[in-house]
Amino acid sequence: MTDVNEPEEGAAPDEAATRDASASGGLSRRGLLGLAIGGSVAGLAVGAGAGLAGGVALGRARAAEDAHSAYGFFGEHQAGITTPVQDHLHFASFDMMPRTDREDLISLLQDWSYAASRMAQGLEVSATGAVGGPAEAPPDDTGEALGLPASGLTLTFGFGPGLFENEEGDRYGIAAQRPSGLERLPAFLGDDLDPQASHGDLCIQACADDPQVAVHAIRNLSRIAFGRARLRWSQLGFGKTSRTTTTQATPRNLFGFKDGTANILADDAAALRDHVWVSTQDEPTWLAGGSYLVARKIAMLIETWDRVRLSEQDAIIGRDKGEGAPLSGGDEFTAPDFRSTAIDENSHVSLAHPEHNDGVRILRRGYNYVDGNNDLGRLDAGLFFLSYQRDPSQFVSLQRRLSTDRMNEYVRHVGSGIWAVPAGVKPGSYIGADLFA
Questions:
Q1: Span 358-374, pLDDT tens digits
Q2: Which residue, of 24, 28, 325, 377, has the fewest CB within 10 Å?
Q3: pTM of the prediction?
């Protein structure tokens, strides 16, 4: 939980881009097989009567009216990074299946890109979709998003360290292209990581203003992956804990404090260039225009925190709980004055601030989560932390700096992962195409 700091990938849907994606062949035979087998397990029996057809038409009309809520899939950078942070998240990590080869990986990325480009516009994953195919075959689309607009859906894809080389070796012929900084994060003080909720060869970050739209996207991309990749773990999130535009109010985390006041914003081109986007001067060149994504599942000891007096909570964070102002004075956006004795040197604000970290900044995009209750009847809840940075060392240095954070008494890091996020997709191409050029 760090208090560090109009998107060019947030363009309106591009009909020509969709035609280009369709022209590239649509889903591969493997992708269609995944839809068919996945549909036999999870598909719903849906009638194709006039009433449903009318509902589909109404839904599409509504989607056209809500076109402003759709973000283009194609662009210089992937959507879902500087895009205005949506209200809901479904994050998924995948492992490639054993004995898959380079062709399997490329076809998966092509199929995912095609389906994602359609869903980002509020369309079904294929032209036949949930009800337009043969009645005696499983539908291409699961159908739970029929009639719903795009709801600001963005799909962001990343490549984990194990994709480049693992115990099977260099199975996809890309080991030499692995970024030097793309390694599993080192152990940090307070880590209690669950291996089954950490890491992964591939990741997909689905964000939307409607949770059903985000879940629909991950559900269908998982089906398309059948035979090539399997879901390793996933996480639902709600209530964004950061902002990426000046028009968004600073949200609050489950401790009740405003979170991400000093986040890097979409219109800060200089900060994005210096701290978020991989440069053409960086290595490897195929990642230029991309970024690195770090995910950390941070469990909050909610009941313990709730018994801490207000003045102590303020001191631990270094900000006023009501207004979000630094304890040195001013309003939420006043720069903290660390010469003031009002801010504890081991408060979260002090330790995380760029002034105390050689100017390091990251772009945050986290969400609250509640996974029910644990065996003790306490809330299983916390922060699903997501950050984008030009180099993984930025996150590592910040996290090490937070080793003496007073807030550590109330949080546990239980999940972790890192992925290289390729640049945006050109019309007619697919995610990560430059890696295989």
A1: 999 999 999 999 999 99
A2: 377
A3: 0.87
